[in-house]
């Protein structure tokens, strides 16, 4: 629905991109939180639930499941809305959602249990465990440790399009091999840089230490996480495969919106398998109720709700410790900037009203999640949603509404969010209104099949007057951008509104080529992918009917 809302998902930088400047005005600073948080009950509970319902309506969020943990117990667990627009099945506290990058903290926790057991050390080089792992600098390859892989500070740039395009043919082993071809953009430890590939490599290295076969990393990681983390915590319904999700029955479907602003279910659900390649970085499904158990374990210093110790407090604390200074929060309201100061190992670290705050968001193709807790106050929240471009906005709004309610504060965030909503909607409407119709004669020379070394094959066709880019796993109509001949923007979810454009142009020998330009790591600029003709592609192929 709203381009700006998609960017606000990045506030805590789990998506690794800078926060756009928001039109907020300074208000008198809220007083520091004093004393213990108030209980979520009575009028506060009624206010919280009313706020959730209102924000879901404003931001077109189809369904959400929320759990609050307080003083060692589950203070609240409730579902809102529906699992799929157009169907009556309600979301419950047990409905499964994909949690995306929230998976990262599970992988660092898994690694912490292995350190406890003496099966590896935090400083064990990834290359000692993973055959074929390398980065562009041979010297860094030999010393980059498992802990480094989790720090978002390796200097390896973000390359998410390489996970989404062609995921059917990309194995974890091939993904790991591809890292060596990514240029380093900063020395180790000197800049925040979010890389799903490197984080996943760290998780797979931990799986090897736990006994995974080098040629079957995905199965080995799933087994290790189930045996050492999910099972001991009591997260028996949380899943790492679609077969497990389907067997559970109670699961949400993802949603998104194209440039027309209409929120729809995304299909097929199998597209979520793109995350399997980087499973330690983002493939977990869970429910609000089971995420509550996870929060209880974190808040109890590694002790599960049943009283059994899952991980030592010392090594759990290592995952919380700040590593990289987070940048990209310029222009953010103070409450947002304060919350996102550093990146640890699968956790964004900061503060709320002077109190220690840890959090992480997750975003896949149509699912958005947020988990946050105050370790010194015994308070945490998990928010799971089945998408729409407003869902990331919703998750942060609900998180800070809870904290403000329980500490009797006003962070002044709601007016900022409202302004961003209006700005985003105006931006979308302006773009949609300025788009020009496709000129069939102009695009005819570019129709056909193309290939990129990094993203695989795509096909361009003309269908009912629209240019369609079909990569097999990803398909979208392309709409011409006004005043920029040959440049297009994706019109359909889940690519619509992404920071990427497609340029139809001419390359070597005046041959047609398709250039995809997308944003990458903050400060690095754009990642550019060139697709060149194959099998007659770009030779004025016959338009589709």
TrEMBL record:
Query: Which residue positions does the secretion signal occupy?
Result: 1-23
Q: Which UniProt keywords apply?
A: Signal
The source's domain of life comes to Bacteria
Which InterPro entries has this protein been placed in? AmpC-like (IPR050491), Beta-lactam-related (IPR001466), Beta-lactam/transpept-like (IPR012338)
PANTHER family attached here? BETA-LACTAMASE-RELATED DOMAIN-CONTAINING PROTEIN (PTHR46825:SF15), D-ALANYL-D-ALANINE-CARBOXYPEPTIDASE/ENDOPEPTIDASE AMPH (PTHR46825)
What is the species listed in this Swiss-Prot or TrEMBL entry? uncultured Thermomicrobiales bacterium
**Keyword set includes Mitochondrion:** no
**Which Gene3D superfamilies does this entry report, sorted A to Z?**
DD-peptidase/beta-lactamase superfamily
Q: Which residues form a coiled coil?
A: none
The answer to whether keyword rRNA-binding applies is no
The chain positions of domain Beta-lactamase-related read 48-397
- Please give the name of this protein: Beta-lactamase-related domain-containing protein
């Amino acid at each position: 629905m709203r381009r700006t809302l998609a960017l606000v998902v990045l506030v805590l930088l789990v998506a690794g991109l800078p926060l756009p400047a928001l039109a907020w005005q300074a208000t008198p600073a809220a007083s520091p939180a004093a004393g213990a948080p108030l209980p979520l009950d009575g009028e506060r509970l009624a206010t919280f639930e009313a706020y959730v319902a209102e924000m879901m309506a404003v931001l077109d969020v189809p369904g959400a499941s929320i759990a609050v943990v307080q003083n060692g117990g589950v203070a609240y667990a409730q579902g809102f809305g529906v699992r799929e627009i157009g169907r009556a099945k309600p979301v419950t506290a047990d409905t499964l959602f994909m949690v995306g990058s929230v998976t990262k903290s599970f992988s660092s926790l898994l690694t912490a249990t292995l350190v406890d057991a003496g099966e590896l050390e935090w400083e064990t080089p990834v290359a000692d465990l993973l055959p074929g792992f390398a980065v562009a600098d041979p010297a860094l390859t030999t010393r980059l440790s498992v802990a480094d892989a989790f720090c978002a500070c390796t200097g390896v740039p973000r390359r998410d399009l390489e996970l989404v395009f062609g995921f059917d043919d990309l194995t974890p082993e091939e993904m790991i091999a591809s890292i060596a071809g990514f240029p380093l953009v900063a020395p180790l430890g000197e800049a925040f840089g979010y890389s799903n590939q490197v984080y996943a490599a760290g998780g797979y290295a931990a799986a090897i230490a736990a006994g995974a076969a080098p040629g079957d990393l995905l199965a080995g990681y799933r087994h290790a996480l189930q045996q050492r983390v999910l099972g001991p915590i009591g997260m028996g319904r949380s899943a790492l495969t679609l077969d497990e999700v389907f067997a559970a029955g109670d699961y949400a479907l993802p949603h998104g919106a194209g440039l027309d602003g209409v929120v729809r279910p995304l299909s097929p659900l199998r597209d979520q398998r793109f995350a399997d390649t980087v499973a330690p970085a983002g493939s977990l499904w869970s429910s609000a109720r089971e995420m509550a158990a996870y929060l209880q374990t974190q808040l109890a210093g590694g002790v599960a709700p049943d009283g059994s110790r899952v991980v030592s407090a010392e090594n759990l604390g290592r995952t919380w410790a700040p590593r990289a200074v987070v940048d990209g929060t310029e222009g953010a309201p103070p409450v947002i900037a304060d919350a996102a100061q550093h990146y640890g190992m699968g956790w964004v670290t900061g503060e709320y009203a002077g109190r220690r705050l840890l959090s992480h968001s997750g975003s896949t193709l149509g699912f958005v999640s947020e988990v946050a807790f105050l370790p010194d106050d015994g308070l945490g929240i998990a928010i799971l949603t089945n998408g729409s471009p407003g869902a990331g906005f919703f998750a942060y709004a609900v998180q800070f509404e809870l904290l403000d309610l329980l500490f009797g504060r006003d962070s002044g965030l709601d007016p900022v969010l409202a302004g961003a909503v209006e700005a985003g909607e105006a931006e979308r409407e302006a773009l949609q209104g300025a788009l020009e119709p496709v000129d069939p004669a102009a695009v005819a020379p570019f129709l056909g099949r193309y290939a990129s070394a990094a993203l695989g094959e795509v096909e361009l066709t003309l269908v009912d007057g629209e240019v369609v880019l079909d990569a097999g796993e990803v398909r979208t109509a392309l709409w011409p951008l006004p005043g920029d001949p040959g440049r297009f923007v994706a019109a359909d979810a889940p690519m619509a509104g992404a920071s990427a454009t497609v340029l139809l142009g001419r390359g070597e020998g005046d041959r047609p080529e398709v250039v995809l330009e997308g944003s990458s790591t903050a400060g690095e600029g754009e990642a550019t992918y060139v697709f060149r003709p194959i099998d007659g592609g770009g030779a004025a192929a016959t338009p589709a009917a």
